[in-house]
Structure formats: C-alpha cells, structure tokens
Amino acid sequence: MPANNDNKARGEKNSSITRVRPFFRYLFDQDASGLSWLPKMIVSEQSNRSYASYLANLNCMMNNQNQVKRKYKDKILGNIELERCFEYSVPPSYLLLRWLIEHPDILTWPKHGQRERKYCLSTQLNRENLFGKHGRTKQSVAKQNAIYLLDSKGVQGSKRKWWAFEGFTEVDCLLETEDFLLGIEGKRTEQVSSATEWYSKRNQIIRNLEVLKEKAGSKDYALLLMCEDGYDPISDHDFSIGLPHYTSEQIVEIKKHYLGAVSWQQACDAVGMDPDRLPDTVRNLV
Fold first, then answer.
1. CB 275 within 8 A of CB 266
2. CA distances from 222 to 43, 146, 262 (A)
C-alpha cells in the first residue's frame, strides 16, 4: 500500500478517536465516579499485577474535573468539545530538559530532507552555540544562559523555547483520583514512536511515564498501554536509553509504575463492555 494510503488508513482508524475516547466515554456514562469499573480495568491482564493490585485498592473515585469539557482543535475532527481527561497536556520533565542542555552531544539536529532544519535567527544562533558550532567559549555561555532561562521560566514556560529539546506531552487519557494519576497511551494501527526529534532514543511510553511522575507529586501514578494485540514492546533497554539522566536505582523505581500492555478486547472484557461498541473508523462515530 502506498505511503499516502497508509497515512489515510491510520487517520480513519485513529486510536484516540476510535478507541480511547469511546471506550472511556462509555464507562463515564455507566458510572461517572469510576468506582465500579476503574479497579477492574487497572487489573485487567497486564504484566505488572503487583502494582496494579496496589492501585486498585486505593481510592478509585475519580475527580469530577476529568469529564469537564473544553474547546479543543483535533487534527482530524477539527474544532470540538473534549473532556479534560483526553489529550491532557503535561509539561516536559525539568530534569530531562536540564540534562539535555548540559549534554548537547547526545542530541541529533533534526533534518528537513537531507539538510539540517533551520529555525528563526535567534533560535538558530543560540542552538548552534549550544552545539559548539562557534567555539567552546560561546558554547559555555549558551549552556549557562539556557540553564538560567529554564530555572527562571520553568517547564511551564518552556514551550517553543530555543533551550527546550522536548515539548509538552499530550497524554491520550489522564484519569485522576484523590490517591493517584493513571495515564493511558492508546494504540491501534500506530506504533510506539520516538518522543522527540532531538533525542530519538526516548519513546512515548518512557516520556509519558516520567512527566506523570513529576505531575503526580506526592500521589501515586501509573501508565497503561492499551493496544490492539496486547503486546508490550517496551524493554529494559528502552528504560535505560530513554532516561539517560536517571541512575540505575531511579530507573528500577520508575519501572514499577509502568503497568504494561492490555488489549482492547481484554479491557472490554474486564469492564463488561461489548467491543462492538467501539467504532471501526472515524466515519463510524455515533
């Protein structure tokens, strides 16, 4: 199948539109509190049963802000009203942004075709300096300036800044209770992709897990991959290369919060939902 047809097929079977949103909207309609279905979904079939069971025994009553709607511009559906829990925007990790500033040698400059991508004049020059293209002195100054800007503006002010080499994350679905945050990464025909153009060794799962950790603060947190076949593609190596700023002990700790993968069929079975309720394509939306 030609590439443009592949892209069209992925658009018609977009996982957020044909899986994530209809699945959770059905559950919201059945029980807005989540008490009757959230514990069942958490312990459905995924590999990390120990931590899943722990979460399921916490307070699973959802924050009512999860379902409050706001205006949202969807790439496929256009301007719509979308529940707050869907496409939830979370800023990047402070620790990662700082580490990437301090280690520009690990970054790969994105390309446009065969050439390096160009940016506006000031961004281009600052990044060239940080990459050492104009000498070590200017590189040192650029690093100091970037760290100062990160510390003064914070991760919330990092969007589209020259010193930010990972952007905001839109978590497919973020459910919040009094005790924990549960992030959902939904897939269908799509694959787990790289998290950032500048550091392609870091994938979506690792990125989402780390930003959830920082957002959760003192709460517990977890990430669940929901996909067509229930296959979990994430390995120990993915954690190691995706968290270069973490110690081995910190990596072991954050891995405990990844629940693994569950298929849509398994998730439907766990909560008593008929999988035929999930639309096959965007055109089948009710």
1. no
2. 12, 31, 14
| 180 & 248 share domain | yes
Each residue's pLDDT tens digit, 62-110: 998 899 999 999 999 999 999 999 999 999 999 999 999 999 999 999 9
DSSP 3-state of 176: strand
Please check whether residues 84 and 100 belong to one and the same domain: no
Residue 115 and residue 73 in one domain: no
Q: Other CB atoms closer than 10 Å to residue 279's CB: what's the count?
A: 16
Q: Which three-class secondary structure state does DSSP give residue 57?
A: coil
Domain that holds residue 140: 94-157
Residue closest to 236 by CA, chosen among 220, 216, 260: 260
Domain total in the chain: 2
pTM of the model: 0.91
Q: Are residues 236 and 271 in the same domain?
A: yes
Q: Among candidates 78, 97, 98, 74, which has minimal Cα distance to 86?
A: 74
